[in-house]
Amino acid sequence: xxxxxxxxxxxxxxxxxxxxxxxxxxxxxxxxxxxxxxxxxxxxxxxxxxxxxxxxxxxxxxxxxxxxxxxxxxxxxxxxxxxxxxxxxxxxxxxxxxxxxxxxxxxxxxxxxxxxxxxxxxxxxxxxxxxxxxxxxxxxxxxxxxxxxxxxxxxxxxxxxxxxxxxxxxxxxxxxxxxxxxxxxxxxxxxxxxxxxxxxxxxxxxxxxxxxxxxxxxxxxxxxxxxxxxxxxxxxxxxxxxxxxxxxxxxxxxxxxxxxxxxxxxxxxxxxxxxxxxxxxxxxxxxxxxxxxxxxxxxxxxxxxxxxxxxxxxxxxxxxxxxxxxxxxxxxxxxxxxxxxxxxxxxxxxxxxxxxxxxxxxxxxxxxxxxxxxx
Amino acid sequence: xxxxxxxxxxxxxxxxxxxxxxxxxxxxxxxxxxxxxxxxxxxxxxxxxxxxxxxxxxxxxxxxxxxxxxxxxxxxxxxxxxxxxxxxxxxxxxxxxxxxxxxxxxxxxxxxxxxxxxxxxxxxxxxxxxxxxxxxxxxxxxxxxxxxxxxxxxxxxxxxxxxxxxxxxxxxxxxxxxxxxxxxxxxxxxxxxxxxxxxxxxxxxxxxxxxxxxxxxxxxxxxxxxxxxxxxxxxxxxxxxxxxxxxxxxxxxxxxxxxxxxxxxxxxxxxxxxxxxxxxxxxxxxxxxxxxxxxxxxxxxxxxxxxxxxxxxxxxxxxxxxxxxxxxxxxxxxxxxxxxxxxxxxxxxxxxxxxxxxxxxxxxxxxxxxxxxxxxxxxxxxxxxxxxxxxxxxxxxxxxxxxxxxxxxxxxxxxxxxxxxxxxxxxxxxxxxxxxxxxxxxxxxxxxxxxxxxxxxxxxxxxxxxxxxxxxxxxxxxxxxxxxxxxxxxxxxxxxxxxxxxxxxxxxxxxxxxxxxxxxxxxxxxxxxxxxxxxxxxxxxxxxxxxxxxxxxxxxxxxxxxxxxxxxxxxxxxxxx
Lengths: 375, 577
Known about the structure:
The complex is a heterodimer. By secondary structure, chain A is an alpha+beta fold. Chain A is 25% helix and 31% strand. Chain B has 24 helices and four strands. In chain B, helix 18 runs antiparallel to helix 21 and helix 21 packs antiparallel against helix 24. The relative contact order of chain B is 0.12. The interface between A and B is large, with 57 and 46 residues.
């Protein structure tokens, strides 16, 4: 298969209004050719709407969409040369697998042999050779999703758009398919835009993650940047499992917490916000110490459980906040007793207490993130 | 790295990205009108001129008195006791019979959709066949059986068995006949809905600990509610607008359609203005019913893309026997009229009195006198049916999928209007609209085709609409994402997926057209005479040749059941893919 089909995708000031609500509020995004970009966010954040605008299924109320600099905002989806993979696969139940894949090729008036060749090649790529005559109803969910991917890739599209393609699969299949999808994307050299609410998927697969929230993109960056230097409380709390503590920042590294912190915190990375801020504490950047006097924070132990590689404990801080801490060694304190927390690394984000709670990651994903290292 | 130029990459699909798309200066992107919008506008024009215009003429007639605008006709209508009674009777009968039809049909549809029972296709064929039976035929047959001097009444009396009633004639008779005549409609809708439910939904329900009855009541039944609402609405409206049944079995019970009919046609005191006012009252009632149905369906669109077939559960022993017995009883009663007609067509009639002497004379007379009538019926219904299916598919798609702000609801309302127009009233409107003026159609075959098309368009549209809501929009979007234009995606993806509904809806439509009576009776003219007209005029005359009427009815049934048989065979092979 030829390489390097992918185009660069540009999103400029895209807004989308539906009757009664605004789905997108001026979104900008640059997507490099042949990269893997994830739109990450909770349901209702506008990520699927943005993807559907890229596909041409929806028309933006205002703004521009470009493929390699060419404005395609008014181009209908059937002319965009995209591949779209649906959450529910959307295989045509009245057509065989072969016909499903060949459908778009026939529309392009390819010769019979060429179509047969492409169908076979696509099926081989997703490991389903020999199933061409089956009907969608005879395949498992994972196989159906492979067919959907094969159908999209057979056309050698310029962009591959994926709408939560793995969310209907079981966890094991989902994890396996991540790597397979990535391999296919690299192999074909296509630009992929991937919508998910699963932060683990986003971090593992993406070159670039755009965290969306309430019709806007909160932050765009590499998985590392998103994880380690979140720019908003929403990003911090959506990616991973964090404790947020209010305080004031001088913008030059100085930070005064509302809740007294003993001793100096490690230096913060990146550009720092000024004024009211929140301190982002991730469980894996914290340690639990019995020596309460030399700890940054202290709290009452609420629970502690073993997860294979270590322990996760939750402490109730003086202001009532529940703070989760990962630690390798067992804790001496019993439930209800006091223990200390040492901060190994932390980040600051501008304060915004209205949305991070409601948008906390779905329990399932959080559990998986916790459970994954142990597995 | 290969060239970044798009043109190098876009494969044979030249139009895809090849021509540099003109960059619009305007930033606000707007959807282009597109071919679907044109289709919608064309349909709107067609349906407005054939459905709305005649009704507007009716409205004009109803509000005109002494050449000026007036409410006088309505005042007279509402203050006349016989019309007051007719309104009440029609409402009560429609609701009671509609509820009973659902109560009878839904359990039958459920057991057949859920369990592996013998004779499934037989029952489905019977259900489709039952919908072909004109209601007036049911009334006619039940009166023959259970009227004061009916075959069964007399026979039972001879054996010393007294029935709890003298005669079936009366409001009770109307309910009895219409329940069995309309249950098959509910049955087919409910059956399709039950079969379309994703089996994993039941499995999910039982997986969370719900027993089979709980799953039935909390999952399966609610999923089928849209179809049941539609089924109840359709059956009760059919009963509400039925004209033949009350005329034959009502025993003078005033009902709206017959009252309006007499007001327009009565030889003593014809009053088209009062008849028009009465028609508008019926339209008002029907509008409220339509609003209620639409309200009940709102927020109830259960899209499902499951391509897994619903398995049939095995069942054995007493349960199986009871299920089959129940289905047998339901369809037995629905087919009593057919058996009566077949039986009486083979017996001798003397001056309206049945003699138990077998004979083929009735058939001999029929073919001598009426062969062209049979062919004419089929031709008219066939043309109307093809038109109806094409328009119905387009309208269903435009209302379910495209949802243009004004046009789609307008199309939906206009196609639904004929639900509520009794054939008689439709005929009055058509006569008023096309009996004079620039386009004169009265006296032609066109006006009959038009009437059949209008009468059936809501039913065919509804059945296709119901199927469309079960097809997830993503299937069509997927086609567009691989390069199919909207029309192609519609033709090659959506239409094949709703083909079962198109075939069954079209078939039912044809059967109903070929058995249409109430509009035909007013619109026909020589040589465009149909079988139903011949049957009805025979049946309504005392001491007329009932045997020939029955024989004609048998021929009518054969003429629709034979094509039905072939269509269903093809239909089955289509869906078994």
